[in-house]
């Protein structure tokens, strides 16, 4: 009998309890996109529990029926504890994770979205201005998927907001001049456009 076990590596974007003995995990893989699986919670904590934004490798057991697959093993390749050390940073990073899990990459773009997410996670962990990282990431995501964010959304802004968007996108994270309030306001406007015009599901 063939061994149908798969090994998948990716970024852990979501985890939640599933029943009394399992966690439901969602990993973003460069080859397979968003992968959902169930991991049994160890009764004895011999290894660290999964944490959001882990870069991890899971071994997936053969599927049974149409439900999620079960993970036989969860191995941490890289962990970013700095994200969880600051609540504001964590909240912004989690928003991007939620957007990605609710709007999985289409076939053919998994690798690009995975690479974008790796870049964003590293910025959330080690760079200033997580608010600007979120805005830049959303912009790159929708540009990469072919949505007319520049032609439609950006042109609908007034001149001051267009200049602010250019500043956010063009300035490095450690040289941002736009206020956090302004970045947040423009991010909300971009998200509303994604929801109304591009049919994104937002948290």
Description:
The chain has 203 residues and is α+β, with helices and mostly antiparallel strands. Helix content is 43%, strand content 22%. It has seven helices and five strands. The chain has helices at 81-84, 87-102, 110-126, 130-144, 149-153, 159-170, 180-197; strands at residues 6-18, 22-29, 33-40, 55-60, 69-78. The chain has a five-stranded mixed beta barrel with strand order 1-2-3-5-4. Helix 2 packs parallel to helix 4, helix 3 (110-126) packs antiparallel against helix 4 (130-144) and helix 4 (130-144) runs parallel beside helix 7 (180-197). The longest helix is centred in the C-terminal third of the chain and has 18 residues, at 180-197.
Write the layout of secondary structure elements.
Elements: E1 6-18, E2 22-29, E3 33-40, E4 55-60, E5 69-78, H1 81-84, H2 87-102, H3 110-126, H4 130-144, H5 149-153, H6 159-170, H7 180-197
Parallel strand pairs: 3-5
Antiparallel strand pairs: 1-2, 1-4, 2-3, 4-5
Helix pairs in contact: 2-4, 3-4, 4-7
Q: In what range is the share of β-strand residues? A: 15-25%
Structural class: alpha+beta
Spatial separation of the terminal alpha carbons: 43 Å
Tally of contiguous helical segments: 7
Tell me about the largest β-sheet: 5 strands, mixed, barrel
Helical percentage = 40-55%
Tell me the total number of β-strands: 5
Shape: globular
